[in-house]
Amino acid sequence: MGWIIDVPGAEVHEGHVAMLGPDGRGSGGSSGEGALFSNPRWSWGSDEPVDIVVPWSEIIGWRVQCECGWRGTTWRREDARTDDPTEEDVFPEHMLLPDGRTLEAAGHAEWREHVQPLVATAAVRSAAAAVRDAETALAEAVAAARTANPPATWEQIGRAAGISRQSAHERWARHR
Fold this sequence. Notes:
The protein has about 180 residues and is an alpha+beta fold. About 35% of the residues lie in helices and about 25% in strands.
């Protein structure tokens, strides 16, 4: 299972708890036989399989991670127990930590903390974009006023903008 956050104006983040193979690499999915890991020998046109299946019994642990490269806690196999001893799989949503949370729940909480600054700054990002848009619109309006027939004076433009004639001239004269 994975989680995604798409905050307007920011990058998209996608996180999940990866199963770790014997070499420490994180899994990309699973099949009935085990976890799927990308095959480092695979290339376009090769006879190699795209994925390598690692049996459930060879999974050494789990790691919470994000596609941006962030990595959170790593749990070893002995750190968790399955919620159903009859199942062979070691999916994070079925593995329980000593405090009773699933690895999925613990990982999701950690990942949410990782992306929280993106969420918290979304309003700042939006307001900054609005300021940039307003600055562009204001400069365009000043340029149009200066090229009107007859053109507006710097005093008239300054008064309309709530600043002095001199400040208006200093700010927008170079945009002509």
